[in-house]
Amino acid sequence: MDRSNNFYDAIVVGGRVAGASTAMLLARRGHRVLLLERARRGSDTLSTHALARAGVLQLKRWGLLKGLVEAGTPPIRRTVFHYGDDKIDIAIKPLGGVDSLYAPRRTVLDQLLVDSAEEAGVEPRFGVSVANVLKDATGRVEGVCASDDSGRPFVARAKLTIGADGIRSSVARHVSARSYREGKSSGGMVYGYWTDVEVEGYEWFFRPGLSGGLIPTNDDRICVWAGAPTRHYRRDLYVDGEPAIESVLSTLDRAAGRRVSAGRRVSVVRGFPGIPGFLRQAWGPGWALVGDAGYFKDPLSSHGISDALRDAELLARAAALVFEGLPEREALSDYQATRDSLSTRLFEATNAIASYGWEVADVAALQLEMSSAMRDEIEALLALDVTEASAAA
Known about the structure:
Blueprint: E1 7-13, H1 17-28, E2 33-37, H2 53-61, H3 65-70, E3 78-83, E4 86-91, H4 106-120, E5 123-126, E6 129-135, E7 141-147, E8 153-163, H5 170-174, E9 179-182, E10 187-195, E11 202-207, E12 210-216, E13 221-229, H6 233-237, E14 238-239, E15 242-243, H7 245-252, H8 254-262, E16 264-265, E17 270-272, E18 278-280, E19 283-284, E20 287-289, E21 295-296, H9 304-323, H10 328-354, H11 360-392
Parallel strand pairs: 1-2, 1-8, 2-5, 3-11, 8-20
Antiparallel strand pairs: 3-4, 6-7, 7-8, 9-18, 10-13, 10-16, 10-17, 11-12, 12-13, 14-15, 18-21, 19-20
Helix pairs in contact: 1-4, 1-9, 2-9, 2-11, 7-8, 9-10, 10-11
C-alpha cells in the first residue's frame, strides 16, 4: 500500500470528543490522519457536559483550556451532593494545576477539538457514513468503505483504523469486538436546559430510586437532568407521555424543585432509556477502539467525556509507537491494559449506583470510591508528562 491520496497513517471514524482528540494528538506527532464524522460540523449531541478534573487537566495539557474559557464556559468551583436531606458541599481545591471544573456545551467542546485537529493537519470530513471496514486476505483491517454527504462512495486505507463512533459503534460491529466486562444495571435519564436557575456549582441529588443534577454550562444555561432505573424509566420519569423533570427534581429536593420551577425552560426535554455499561476488546489487527465505542458506563457518573479525553491520549501514544515500529500487539495491548486499570473501579462504582438498589448512605460511600479512583487517574495522566520528558532527555 503506497502513500497516495487515499492512504493514511490513521483513519478515525467518529469526530466528536474521543475521535477528534485522538486525531489531533496523532497529527501533532506528524502523522497523516483522516477524520470521518456522520453528523454535520458543529452539531449538538445529548450530553451531561460535566468534565471531571481529569478532563479539564487533559484540555489544559493540550493547550485548549484557554479556548474553552474564552468561549464563555463558566468555571465550577464547588460540587454539592444532596443525599436525601443531607448536604455535603465540597470546594474544588487545586490539584494537578487545575482549580476549577467546566461543563462545556458540546457545540463548544466538539468544535474546539475539531478545529484544533484541523490546525494540526487532520483532514476532517463530515456527513460521511461508513458502510464497512476493508480487510486484506489475512483478515487484517486496512481501511473503510464509506459514502460522502452527497451519497458518493469512496474507499480510504490506513495503517490503523480507529473506531470512535459511540456505544453502537459500526467499527466495533464490523470487527466483531467482544465485550468482556458488562454492567448488570442501567439507568434512564431525561435532560433539558433552563435559564435563571440559581446553582451552587455542580449539584447532584440522590433518593432511593431516583437521582438528578444541575450542571451550569455555556450561555447561562443549566443542564437539568433526572434519572431512574431503566426498568422504571417511563413510570418514574414521565407523566402522560411527557418527561416530568421538574416534578422529579421536587421529589429529590423541594428547594431544588422550586429553583428549577422559578427558572425558564429553553429547550425540549430529551430522554435516554439507558443501556448497561461495557468494556470491549480495544484492538485487533489493524484496528482500535476509543471512547464509548470501547468503554461505556452509565452517564450518571458524568465522567464519560473525561474518559474519552484520557483514552484518546493513551491510544494516540500507543498508535504512534506502532507507526514508529513497535509491534502492534505490544503497543495496543498496553493501551487496553492501561485503559482497563484506570477504568475498573469507576466502572464498578458507577454500575452499583446505576442499579438504584441502594440506600442513600451507600451512594456516599460509592462516591468516595469514585473520588479515590479519580485521584489515581490524575496521577497517571501527570506521569505521562514525566515519561515523555524522560524519553526526550
